[in-house]
Fold these 4 entries.
Entry 1:
Amino acid sequence: MSAPLHIAVLPGDGIGNDVTYEALKVLGAVSDVSGRALAFDHLPWGADHFLRTGITVPSDGYTVLAEHDAILAGAFGDPRVPDNRHARDILLGTRVSLDLYVNHRPIRLIDDRLCPLKNRSTLQVNFVVFRENTEGLYAGIGGRFKAGTNDEIAIQEEINTYKGVHRIVRHAFAHAASAGLTRVCMADKSNAMIDGHALWQRVFREVAADYPAIEARHLYIDALAFFLVQDPSAFQVIVTNNLFGDIITDLGAALQGGLGVAASANLHPGRTSMFEPVHGSAPPLAGKNTANPIGAILSAAMMLSALGRHEEAALIEQAVHAAVINGQTTADIGGTLGTRETGDYVAATIRKARAPEA
Ligand code: NAD
Ligand code: IPM
Ligand code: MN
């Protein structure tokens, strides 16, 4: 075995635990067959930990995360923490503290039958969303005055910086260029948000000028929602702000079969990054062996890919494709298996793919 990569594991709340367990099972299988070691440090942060200790993230928490090669996260959110404070500190806090400015969310239909749109094939749903991940309406700047009274004033500011907008737009074009793609769409709401989103307009034109071979299209976010349902094949790369990216990637998750299969990476290229499924903690499904682990498993594949282990990432992707095509999945995408059995199938497929010939 080679020197291990050190992965911080944050399963979190609800089905975050169920699906992360399966992602680790699959990573174990891939590590066994490749002979390349992975070492996991489990961190208990989540609602239970917060309710027990009053701590969301320990004082050295972000530093501890940054000392790892990568972070694998599950999901955060629990009805016992109605203000979602722990999730904001753990998830949004990590995105900001580690400056993970790229939220990379691929939307890829694995099997025609999973698309909720009529007569669509896998060739027609295959694009990637780059969501700005450190500013926008998520900056946490605002406050409430006379809270709880009928005179309450609630303010939530949207932050758009030249640096922040520029680096995510540039990342989108650079990705398109390196992947041989020819279309980038930027979505904003510059017809209504005339200051903040004028900055997006300016930066988009500026960066697009450096990529003359790439078609740079602008859509207002409401029109993007419309076109994504009407004709997803029109899109290859989408770049947008934090909130719009959050919303549009749940729509994208639906196009590829549901939240159970959607994967994501929170990246700062070259630095410790975090990988997590797009879905939340789905409290009603927690612990019931029902949640689909594929989004978490594909997020683990994105992690290996970002760490340069492309072959191992491809092994996971191929095994997931086999599970989906053969119907060896959970019920949300038409199978009859439980969470654990789906993970078992994917892990066994990886081991079989690499078993020595008899
Ligand atoms: P959710 O993603 O948890 O659930 C939305 C719907 O999708 C539900 O019907 C759920 O059953 C289904 N679903 C989600 N994941 C699934 C899976 N793996 N397999 C099968 N079905 C799945 O979103 P929500 O209900 O809006 O939020 C629940 C909690 O999760 C809230 O506290 C919310 O803040 C939190 N949340 C966290 C994250 C995250 O940690 N990244 C993301 C979204 C929501
Ligand atoms: C996501 C989630 C988070 C977000 C929530 C839990 C704060 O919806 O990762 O998509 O809005 O970013
Ligand atoms: Mn979301």
Entry 2:
Amino acid sequence: MDFNLSEEQIMIRDAARDFAQAELLPGVIERDEKQQFPAEQIKKMGELGFLGMMVDPKYGGSGLDTVSYVLAMEEISKIDASASVVMSVNNSLVCWGLEHYGTEEQKQKYLIPLAKGEIIGAFCLSEPEAGSDATSQKTTAIDKGDYYLLNGTKNWITNGNNASIYLVIAQTHPEKMHKGINALIVEKGMEGFVVGPKENKLGIRGSDTHSLMFTDVKVPKGNRIGDDGFGFKFAMKTLAGGRIGIASQALGIASGAYELALKYSKERKAFGKEISKHQAIAFKLADMALQIEAARHLCIKAAWEKDQKLNYDLSGAMAKLYAADMAMQVTIEAVQIHGGYGFVKEYHVERLMRDAKITQIYEGTSEIQKIVISRSILQD
Ligand code: CAA
């Protein structure tokens, strides 16, 4: 067993760290306050290959492994989780889904610009009444011969307004339950497709989250991903990898908050010495460092399993569950170590604490991860 990173993995991690410091840190507080999408920064991330990291270079990607992706996600998330969720959705859900299940024509038309970061994509599963219970899709895709007639509403869609391509999950054969669901590629601008207002969120306020409305949208048959009825499996398989991305996001949010708390604790003095020299603070830092390291191992293990073409449903769910809960605890402690300064925006940790919360909710809540984990360990 070798715990060392390769030279290439270290280079990717350092490039992501440098990019985050140089390009994402300036203005991150203002973007959060104004709920401003980091459009210029995302464009640069695309140019550097961060939006199609694992895609084969023949489809415009960087051809890297999932471990490199985890390392880059951690570094980007330390500074700006609103940017890293764009990166996670584009890489893990949209590009991965198209590369693995799309036709050659779909790859040529959609995957190449997505992997190059020329455009970004969105993954549309959640509905007003279908969040955790994802099989209860009310959006319908009625088979009309050459096309599907798409009707319904999707909720909480990351990249909702800025995406050009939307992977939409919809029910075609309700009598077949989840086996009647399809995944369709919908282009922005298709007639009958309307983007709803932007959600005013607690955290990741720079990312643009919208509801989407589809009214008699004609989606060509050629835009279906996989065989008729493959849509639910497509969503589950894609989300299994997405969970590694969100786990790494949670890891990065926590390690960003920890690094700030560590630095502050060595500068701030109370009762005649640095607060890091008080056991109450030193023990908090020890707990935080331990939890972060444990989460990092879980993330890298899940990524490694994915790279080895092993089943990563269990390891990805474990990584996400642990990293998300850990990020919540660590960021709360980072605010506590900063005292009053932690409660004001200039010190970043209050934003990281708000950003951490979503990692326990999206791409499967912590409770859903426990369903996935328990089913996996209890199966014969
Ligand atoms: N891989 C392949 N197939 C899978 C699978 C996987 N990982 N997980 C489930 N399936 C298959 C099952 O085998 C089953 O198929 P068969 O009937 O052919 O055997 C089918 O899917 C249905 O599975 P279940 O009976 O287990 O379904 P369920 O209703 O009990 O639900 C669940 C399972 C795990 C709870 C699932 O509903 C789930 O993951 N829910 C959470 C949804 C979610 O993560 N939403 C996030 C929204 S996307 C998002 O947040 C993106 C963003 O913008 C950031």
Entry 3:
Amino acid sequence: MSETKPVTAECVFCKILRGESTAEIVFRNRNAIAILDINPIHYGHILVIPRSHAESFLGVPEEELADLIHATRKVTEAMVKSLDPPGYNIFSNNGEAAGQSVFHCHFHITPRYRDDNIRFLLKLKRYEGDEMRRYAERIRSTLSGSA
Ligand code: 5GP
Ligand code: ZN
């Protein structure tokens, strides 16, 4: 999946970051902002958004990653303390095929409740023969070829 050109002028999250659109901001640091999702899975559903416009996680500048993960940790902790859900999910949709609808990278953090009937509809596969090793080898060899 390749990165496409920045479209910061029209991007809803860039507008929120610039203060041109309103949002319920719960946290910000140098390189990330956390807001409430306008259409929550459950009340208290948070989005953590890196300052730079990058369509997917892989486009977030290296120097912003620490602040992004730190913001994610801070707001998750506050959400758990304040709302006391029995569980929570942290996830990020990257690419239309993965369900992304706003093409500025973000993490979702949502409270979860027993029997809330929210789940990915999974059709789990099984590796046959040496397929598992071959998939691991493809990933390992790409990693060993990179810095
Ligand atoms: P995605 O589908 O890309 O993983 O998630 C995008 C999320 O952004 C959705 O859950 C959607 O409800 C939320 N969203 C879209 N537009 C706005 C907006 O203008 N303000 C806020 N607070 N959330 C938004
Ligand atoms: Zn943007």
Entry 4:
Amino acid sequence: MQLIDQRFLPHQFVIEDVATVRQMADAIREMHVRGAGLIGASAGYGMYLATIEAAARPTMTEFDRHLADAAEQLEATRPTAVNLVWAIERQLANIVNGRTAREKIALALRTAKDTAAEDEEHCRLIGEHGFHLIEQIARSKNRKSVNILTHCNAGWLAFVDYGSALAPIYTAHDRGLSVHVWVDETRPRSQGSKLTAWELAQHGVPHTIIADSAGGYLMQHGEVDLVIVGSDRTTRTGDVANKIGTYLKALAARDNNVPFYVALPSASFDWSIHDGSEIPIEQRSVDEVKCARGWCDGQILEVKLAPENSPAANYGFDVTPRRLVTGLITERGICEANEKSILQLFPEHAS
Ligand code: MRU
């Protein structure tokens, strides 16, 4: 199967072939593919590859062992986005129903396709629901351009299509509303300036890249009407884990009365967790903080930014407490960030 290797965007559009579980695990860990929805979809296909590999094993017991090893290998790649575990568990629950290796492979392929198709449809619906929010603001501004701030990349690159945070923006733009997006650069990996800006440019959506620390200033000066971010894991009570720096945006939004919305498909809810402090936060290599990758003379180069011997830390995500979240935009509609309101949309997860 083929992936867009996002490490090369926006400078090169590189397609990567992935044929084994190990290659898929590497692609997720090293962030050739990233973003909650795409991590889930990729893990789903990773489990399909696992069934093909397992079919070469001599017995069904060994088939099952290979599958369990593959699940473990894929799960260990990235700890925060809950879509990963969700997609793997969904695969295991379905594959077990096959009696032969052939049946198991077919079930795994079906499940991988269903997971990807659902992700796409859920993001489309998030676009519909979030559109109404933007439309309301546009009306209150006499149709003047709506300024939306976003953090990291929660666009179609982070999902199978449409995106979560960017889906309402694309829908609004496509339906003729004037929107402008403030794109947080999102250090250390710069998913904002590299990926979100590229996506928006491809789609013709007006946008401006800003340093991560600029959002507060813009909010103080009335330049932000709305913040929409994505989520890698949201508790059943509405605490939101998202790319590091999201919490600071939520604080600034609250201080300046700017609505702060989180867009997420239901696969990004962790129904087993009540409090954001229980969400595992990924820590990545400090080289991502101490160095920067960019394009120079026709090639990708990495340059050092910091003193060689200074220690660094690289926390990938933070948790925004529900009290700072104005609302959650899901495929079933918009709700408040609290358990009661979330369960009104997803009653099957009550109890
Ligand atoms: O580390 P990443 O790039 O996989 O992080 C994911 C993100 O892009 C964000 O946290 C995003 O806002 C939510 S996932 C669509």
